[in-house]
Amino acid sequence: MKVAVFSTRNYDREYLSAANGSRHELHFFEPHLDEQTAGLAAGFSAVCVFVNDSVTGKVISKLRLLGVGLIALRCAGYNNVDITAAETHGLVVLRVPGYSPYAVAEHAIALMLALNRNLHRAYNRVREGNFALDGLLGFDLHGKTVGIIGTGKIGTVVADILRGFGCPTLAFDPIPNERCRSSGVRYMNLDELLANSDVITLHCPLTPQNKHIIDAAALRKMKSGVMLINTSRGALIDTMAVIEALKGAKIGYLGLDVYEEEEQIFFEDRSGLIISDDVFSRLLTFPNVIITGHQAFFTREALQKIAATTVANITDFEHGGALENRVVQDW
Fold first, then answer.
1. The domain 2-99+300-319: what is its CATH number?
2. What does the pLDDT look like over 292-316, one tens digit per residue?
3. Which of 300, 327, 303, 301 is nearest to 313 (CA)?
4. Nearest to 231 by CA among 103, 144, 70
5. Domain 101-291: what homologous superfamily?
6. How many Cβ atoms from other residues are within 10 Å of residue 134's Cβ?
7. Which residues are catalytically annotated?
């Protein structure tokens, strides 16, 4: 099958080519898929896209006219794809539902530890010859209560790791995970979790129902000085409300690997450019904020699994397989 792979970087080419072998004809394009670049898919039966591609209804309409029948996501989330439009136009959408829950879970824990012990500030100080400890005081993570919002594969691994730290763990999920429950995780409603957690970490997909699940009202229910971590999707958090909570010291620590408007910023070298997003720039001014550029998934093991599953999805579609990883409209 002839596949147009959008938003590609060197690591995409390396891992997808290794997983593909000679099964499909992969053509790699650096631009993101959007209304302006959809024409690049002419002559292809499938497109392969990532989280920063914009697969809107208009893009899908163009893809259908060009003869594209498959949208192969090389990621788990699909909030950047208009699933209703895909179904209307008869395009199949396949995703990678699981690659390495350990990669994302471990990154979330890394953000917790770095924020707590001010590693980002300590690193810069030592490089400048400043070995003073003032302003670097942390706390024992042991014994602190951590609230996990979303206990799928990633949230479950986070709970496992936190158990090793000796952290009482709370969880909110519409569908409780019995493995988590049996290991000592206490499920409760969202308001109770917000009120009782010293650290809150998000591990749920983005849906219309939970957009801005962390908004001004939710923040008011949290402990003062709470640590908030998000390695899932940027729009789970109302960024403006979070900035106000940082200014008022309601949030004591903020760790983000995702951002609401990251499509215009992440996955590119912008070191020589002025970032025009004033909200993102404001976040960067806080000393108790660490932002990474959507790299939580970025391990060798995860890239291998993403590539293997993506190629398998394309092969299943070509051969009329079961399409276990198909995305369908569910609301």
1. 3.40.50.720
2. 999 999 999 999 999 999 999 999 9
3. 327
4. 103
5. NAD(P)-binding Rossmann-like Domain (3.40.50.720)
6. 6
7. 233, 262, 294
